């Protein structure tokens, strides 16, 4: 009864303020470690409707075709109208391997559709890297968990050894995460002290400023950041800061617009209160909340949309599944070795060909990534288009300057 009364009191404040019973508070703490159970989606309440902020790649929700912006109107035939965010999270979670049915409304659908998703342990591989055109590095950050900045350092060092001269940072479908990791990631691309993000709340103690470090080294490559409607919170902090500081070109579609600060107040019985206390602002003073980050170059993602019949829908589902299994198999693939323990030359050629085929497949399927690669390939022309763009170099005073 007490729990119900508390829920009722906080519900009227805003969509992100909520009461966390002991079990829910424990689940929330697990999420930021990069491993948790569920469907693989970040959800929020937008305009009174339960909304998918972003599906995490290669998770059950992603593989069945759930997209950023989808409206969850039913969970197991029960309407989500007036359902609190915490209630929805509790219903979506369950025993690993058990199915759950959700009903989705999407603007491109003629009618709402049901999706059955099997719950799984979600292991978020925070950072993924690839190489395009021999000198264009690609780093995708899927979420901002406690090891993200460290994983980013490892990925950048590996790409540096491969001789990259330009970089793509992919923040699409990244629902956010830890603020300190967003600040650390942004700091990697700056080599002087700059304001990254600041917060403003009702009390002075909620007014905070986060800056980069003045240092002699930084990631000095020309940078394009990919964003979409599934880029939220910490992702928007990174994109907004590097855009304001003229350090990166933002490409894609407008971001989600979640720029409010939630403070967790632990209670004596193991529960907690998640209270909205402030808003995030970019270095130039832009409000992220409700507005999001508008790209410098708007390019809609061209994908094969969901169709009405199951017969037509099946090939796309199989394509997603085949792609997932192929990538999964590559990760577990045993390297062929000859009798003295060296990698066999023919095996290495086959593996190189597989990786190249995977990279080429990415470019064919992903027109936003394709555009980013094309723009970086013609970087000298890009510099003329974006005259104010600042690319840090290791010059005499280690300050930001144009190459």
What would you say about this model in short?
With 403 residues, the protein is α+β, with helices and mostly antiparallel strands. It has helices spanning 2-11, 22-31, 60-64, 85-92, 148-161, 179-188, 234-244, 310-332, 345-365, 367-377, 379-385; strands at residues 18-20, 35-38, 41-46, 49-55, 71-75, 78-79, 99-105, 113-118, 120-123, 127-132, 136-141, 166-170, 195-201, 208-211, 223-227, 249-252, 260-266, 272-281, 297-298. The protein has a domain at 2-123: PDZ domain (Pdz3 Domain, Roll).
Structural summary, described in words:
The chain is globular, with a radius of gyration of 22 Å. Helix content is 32%, strand content 25%. It has a domain at 2-123: Pdz3 Domain (Roll), CATH 2.30.42.10. The chain has helices spanning 2-11, 22-31, 60-64, 85-92, 148-161, 179-188, 234-244, 310-332, 345-365, 367-377, 379-385; strands at 18-20, 35-38, 41-46, 49-55, 71-75, 78-79, 99-105, 113-118, 120-123, 127-132, 136-141, 166-170, 195-201, 208-211, 223-227, 249-252, 260-266, 272-281, 297-298.
Which features does this protein show?
403 residues; alpha+beta; Pdz3 Domain; six-stranded mixed sheet; 32% helix; 25% strand
What is the H/E string?
A: HEHEEEHEEHEEEEEHEHEEEHEEEEHHHH
The total count of strands amounts to 19
Give the structural class: alpha+beta
Give the integer mean of the pLDDT values.
80
- CATH architectural label of the domain at 2-123: Roll
CATH topology of the domain at 2-123: Pdz3 Domain
Name the strands of the widest sheet in spatial order.
10-11-12-15-16-19
Radius of gyration: 22 Å
Tell me the name of the CATH class of the domain at 2-123. Mainly Beta
Q: Give the helix proportion (percent range).
A: 25-40%
Terminal CA distance reads: 64 Å
Major sheet description: 6 strands, mixed
- Give the helix tally: 11
CATH superfamily of the domain at 2-123: PDZ domain
Which word captures the global form? Answer: globular
- The parts where pLDDT drops under 50 for at least 5 residues are 304-344, 347-357, 394-403
């Amino acid at each position: 009864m007490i729990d119900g009364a508390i829920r009722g009191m906080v519900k009227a404040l805003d969509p992100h303020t909520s009461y966390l019973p002991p079990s829910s508070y424990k689940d929330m703490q697990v999420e930021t470690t990069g491993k948790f159970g569920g469907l693989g989606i970040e959800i929020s309440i937008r305009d009174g409707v339960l909304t998918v902020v972003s599906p995490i790649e290669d998770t059950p929700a992603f593989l069945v075709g759930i997209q950023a912006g989808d409206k969850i109107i039913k969970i197991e035939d029960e309407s989500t109208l007036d359902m609190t965010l915490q209630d929805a999270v509790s219903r979506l979670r369950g025993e690993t391997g058990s199915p759950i049915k959700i009903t989705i409304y999407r603007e491109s659908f003629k009618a709402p559709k049901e999706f059955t998703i099997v719950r799984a342990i979600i292991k978020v591989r925070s950072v993924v890297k690839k190489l395009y055109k021999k000198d264009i590095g690609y780093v995708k950050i899927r979420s901002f968990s406690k090891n993200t900045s460290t994983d980013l350092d490892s990925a950048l060092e590996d790409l540096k050894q491969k001789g990259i001269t330009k970089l793509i940072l992919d923040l699409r479908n990244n629902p956010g995460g830890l603020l300190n990791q967003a600040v650390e990631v942004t700091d990697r691309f700056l080599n002087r002290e700059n304001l990254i993000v600041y917060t403003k709340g009702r009390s002075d103690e909620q007014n905070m400023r986060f800056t980069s470090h003045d240092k002699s080294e930084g990631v000095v490559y020309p940078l394009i950041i990919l964003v979409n409607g599934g880029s939220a919170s910490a992702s928007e902090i990174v994109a907004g800061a590097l855009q304001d500081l003229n350090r990166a070109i933002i490409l894609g579609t407008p971001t989600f617009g979640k720029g409010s600060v939630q403070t967790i107040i632990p209670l004596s019985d193991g529960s907690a209160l998640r209270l909205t206390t402030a808003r995030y602002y970019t270095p130039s003073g832009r409000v992220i909340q409700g507005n999001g980050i508008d790209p410098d170059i708007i390019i809609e993602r061209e994908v094969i949309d969901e169709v009405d019949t199951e017969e037509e829908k099946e090939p796309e589902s199989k394509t997603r599944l085949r792609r997932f299994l192929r990538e999964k198999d590559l990760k577990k693939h045993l390297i062929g070795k000859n009798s003295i323990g060296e990698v066999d030359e023919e095996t290495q050629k086959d593996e190189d060909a597989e990786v190249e085929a995977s990279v080429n497949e990415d470019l064919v399927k992903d027109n936003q990534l394709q555009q980013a690669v094309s723009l970086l390939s013609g970087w000298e022309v890009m510099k003329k288009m974006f005259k104010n763009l600042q690319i840090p170099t290791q010059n005499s005073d280690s300050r930001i300057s144009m190459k």
